[in-house]
Design a protein that fits this description.
about 260 residues; Rossmann fold; elongated; two-stranded antiparallel ribbon; 9 helices; alpha/beta; 9 strands; 2 domains
């Protein structure tokens, strides 16, 4: 009974309704032998099915996530700094903490775990800026302020302020490394983002030790694996992440950043 109720609740979700209505309409048109002009809507429905009802998007993103080996905390070397790229949080004027966690928040938790393990005496936070009413709010500053006020860290904390993109973060870290004479850095970012990040940092002269996290491939997650299921928006999110990194890699290549 519980399974039936969960299935019914899933079917009334907006994405499931769209998928079901289009599918039923296509079947109706086929049975009425009006299939001549169904190539485009049929192809769109099949693509939607592939992305939201199967692990296809996870298979795509695994091609990015598997490029850099997974790590174990105990095997990571002692370093001079931990660099945590932005993308896992955003400043907020309404949240009590002053910032809001996003899907990539594993970046921050991983960096804090490395800090707690004493892997480096310095934690560097990156991140973008959010324009609002003539002022630009920094995600790195928002999190840094919170950590300084509410958490006792073993390491020094440094915010990179507002960064335009990953390349900007790499340039700022390179400047800081030259200033302080760093020879080894632990670099924390999402696993699918790590290949482009490593190439960007290498381009500015930094050969960092990668610490990938925030794995999106559903085959790596706990729970039973199903090769076909009712539509889930997660597939679209994973596909969007893969597309973002793929296009981003092309852009970085043509701009000479990797």
């Amino acid at each position: 009974m519980t399974l039936i109720l969960k299935t019914l609740l899933h079917l009334i979700q907006p994405l499931s309704i769209v998928w079901l209505v289009i599918g039923l309409w296509l079947l109706r048109m086929i049975f009425r032998r009006r299939s001549l002009n169904l190539w485009f809507p049929g192809g769109a429905w099949l693509l939607l099915t592939l992305l939201t009802c199967t692990p296809f998007a996870s298979w795509l993103i695994s091609g990015l996530e598997d490029q850099v080996p997974r790590v174990r905390l105990a095997e990571l070397p002692q370093s001079e700094a931990i660099v945590c790229l932005g993308g896992g949080f955003e400043p907020s004027l309404v949240e009590p903490a002053g910032f809001k966690l996003q899907a990539g928040a594993d970046r921050l938790t991983t960096a804090l775990t490395l800090t707690a393990e004493g892997k480096a005496p310095l934690l560097i936070l990156g991140g973008g800026g959010y324009p609002h009413e003539g002022r630009v709010y920094s995600e790195a500053d928002a999190v840094s302020d919170y950590l300084r006020s509410h958490v006792t860290l073993k390491s020094e904390l440094l915010s990179m302020g507002v960064c335009k993109d990953t390349h900007d973060e790499a340039v700022k870290v390179a400047s800081l490394s030259k200033e302080r004479g760093f020879s080894r850095l632990l670099l924390v970012t999402s696993a699918n983002h790590m290949p482009r990040t490593l190439a960007t940092f290498k381009k500015v002269g930094i050969n960092a030790v990668p610490v990938p996290c925030n794995y999106l491939n559903s085959l790596n997650q706990l729970g039973e694996k199903h090769w076909f299921h009712l539509p889930s928006s997660r597939g679209l999110e994973v596909f969007g992440a893969w597309l973002h990194e793929t296009v981003g890699s092309w852009v970085y290549y043509f701009r000479g950043w990797v």
